[in-house]
Amino acid sequence: MSPMEIVCRSVFTGTTPPGVIGWYHQMPTALPGPPAPSPQATPASSAAAFDAAESTWQASTKTECDAEQAKWSDGNIVNFMGSECTIRQSRARLRELAEVYRQTGYLHR
User: Fold this and answer.
1) For the CA atoms of 94, 96, 98, 100, what is the dihedral angle to 10 degrees?
2) Other CB atoms closer than 10 Å to residue 12's CB: what's the count?
3) Tell me: the pLDDT tens digits for 11-28?
4) Which of 51, 73, 82, 93 is the most buried (most CB within 10 A)?
């Protein structure tokens, strides 16, 4: 019987099969430890990471707004809806970035 089957049976029957308590207490030692610390970020690596994240965000926003615009493809409002989506997403992204920079101390209000 697999550990998952043991857990499922114990949930359905309301009992704890023999050996489950010991297995449960051994889990912390069986799991891997925390990941190794990453190297210290440099201005160049931070800029590259930001550029990669921003490119991903732009692609995601374009896909989302294209899908939203497609809902209106038969009407006169199609261009407005696509632009409105892009503006809405951009404003949300700017608020998100401002909050991140505020939390890290890079942006002072």
Assistant:
1) -150
2) 8
3) 556 665 555 556 555 555
4) 82
Tokens of 44: 């160049």
66: its two tokens: 């294209």
Query: What's the whole-model pTM score?
Result: 0.56
Interatomic CA distance for residues 67 and 70, integer angstroms: 5
Structure tokens at 81: 């809806």
Q: How many CB atoms lie within 10 A of CB 65?
A: 19
Cα 79 to the center of its chain, rounded Å: 30
pLDDT surpassing 80 at residue 65:
yes
41: left (phi over 0), alpha (psi -120 to 50) or beta: beta
Rg of the chain over all Cα atoms, to the nearest angstrom: 25
CA pair distance 82, 76, nearest whole angstrom: 12
| Across 42-66, average pLDDT | 90
